[in-house]
Amino acid sequence: MTTEPGDKGERLLPWVGAVVGVLWFLVAGGAPTLDPTNLDGLGIGDPAQHVLGWLHFRDAPWSFPLGRTPSLMAPHVMTVGFSDSNPWLSLLLKPFARWLPRDFQFIGPWLALCFALQGAMAVKLMGLFTRKPLQRVLGAAFFVTAPVLLARVGHDTLCAHWMLTAMLWLYLRPREAAAAARRSLRWALLLNVLAAGTHPYLTVMVFALSVALLVQAWREGHLSSRAAGGVFAGLGLAVSVPFLAFGYVGQGVSTGTIGFGIFSADLLTFINPLGSSRLLPSLPVNSGQYEGFGYLGTGALALGVAGLFGWVFSDRPRSWERVKPLLPLVLVALALTVLGFSSTMTVAGRTVLTMRKLMEPVMPMLGAFRASGRFIWPLYYLLLTGGVAWVLWRWRQRPGVATALLLGAVLLQVVDAPDAWSQRMFVGAPWPRLQAPEWERVDAAYRQVTLVPPVILGSQRPCVENGFPEHTYVRFGDLAYRRGLTTNSGYSARLNEPRVAEVCAALMDDVEHGRLAEDTVYVVDAAKRPLFERLGDRVTCGALDGYTVCVAARDGAFRESLKQASPPPPAPAPSANTPL
User: Fold this and answer.
1) What are the pLDDT digits (tens) for 350-373?
2) How far is CA 215 from the centre of its chain?
3) In 10 A of CB 314, how many CB atoms?
4) Is-contact 206 332, C-beta < 8 A?
5) Other Cβ atoms within 10 Å of 513 Cβ, number
6) Could you please report the per-residue DSSP string of 246-275?
7) Exposed, middle or buried by CB within 10 Å (0-12, 13-18, 19+), for 246?
8) What is the pTM of this model?
9) Quick check: 53 and 69 in contact, CB under 8 A?
10) For 319-338, how does the pLDDT look when each residue is reduced to its tens digit (9 = 90+)?
């Protein structure tokens, strides 16, 4: 059966692709995350940061920049953009916060939506190369089961790969008239707006692909130079306005250069499974190059081999006219990939070319995108598209052979997907909620929970070095959310390091001189405990959930609970680095 544009089958096929995407999401272990009241599994790493940012934003007053979360990591500027809490979705749900359960997360439903949209957009993309529904769904299956997509479920906002697939569809679809070109550019404009409120890395890729589409529309004569300049300005506004509104820029934070050249892609990334195959061996990479993971999948590679044989033994097209329209797209994808390889190019983890000195003048700009390995994704999906399209074209006279090759390759892709079948990509950690009943007595007399020293993940300042257990900032960020407090700790994607040092130094000076606030709950690192012990009866301290907790308040239910709690363990002997 074939479908014609506009008929019922054509309208239904993207829904079939969406169903395939959701099924793969469920196979990979995503079902438990679909319960929006279930925070378990999200208590570690990036998901914990994202959930905590949303929880504090839902109770925050409206302010500018949009997404401001003044109760998290106070007094530093913190937004849902810096906590990577899916700004557009957080903004959409905030008006309904009073009716939502107190424990509420949207990461699971968002991930399912990303898999569904990836399947739907891939079916539309495959429709440019075949009218056969089965072939379109099989081709789309490579996009749904792409190992790079599943590898990103631990960083939910980076799972919106459907935006890249949509941009490929917009670029490759026919544009026989100016109206069609303008329609494609309008959709590209919308995708830029969506990407700018989802994740900055996706924004760069979507913007670059949009520029490629704009250039090609101009080359085809659908736009005048003046009109093309206007569209380019519109694309710039589509990105810059959300960036300003969500506080990605203009907040005095530093982009830094630490990480660029480390969190890159290896030159063999497209064939290196890194443990995502039982059949093919993994190749060595450097420690940070997981960010540049780009394995195409065993089935996709097998299809590529079949296509290569077909290329050798076929009357392949030699017309330059067929290739010229792809030039802007290919050049943009290659340029992004070179950026993904970064200033230090490696093969199987071994450095083969260093361009650090050459790129030194632009490092302040490139440092904003230190995890540059992600920029291989446009070429990744272009390779998938090209591989399926070539097989369909090569055996166009024998569609049964093309369908059989696609089916066999998809089955191989699915079978050799240990990350999916083991469901390990969705194995997280329980939400690290404090359990001591005494926390329920933290009443309205308290306004802040202060960790001493502050836990500012990602900061390189010596003042914030601490011995707190892992994810302490999540535990007390959760407490602050539940009790209506602010907290001085958190995890921000970008920091104003001089401000971090200044705020930390002011806190430590107050502690050292006994200037403690009565409306604050102090959580004290073991190395700083002597500073509180020497204050004697000016403070009340106790041990709750393994933490030393102190207050300067002279009365109140929580103070009484601390007096009855187990005393803190003996403080460690002061070291030369412990100020007294």
Assistant:
1) 988 887 776 666 666 666 788 899
2) 29
3) 13
4) no
5) 9
6) TTSSSS--B---TTTTTS---TTGGG--TT
7) buried
8) 0.93
9) yes
10) 566 778 999 999 999 999 99
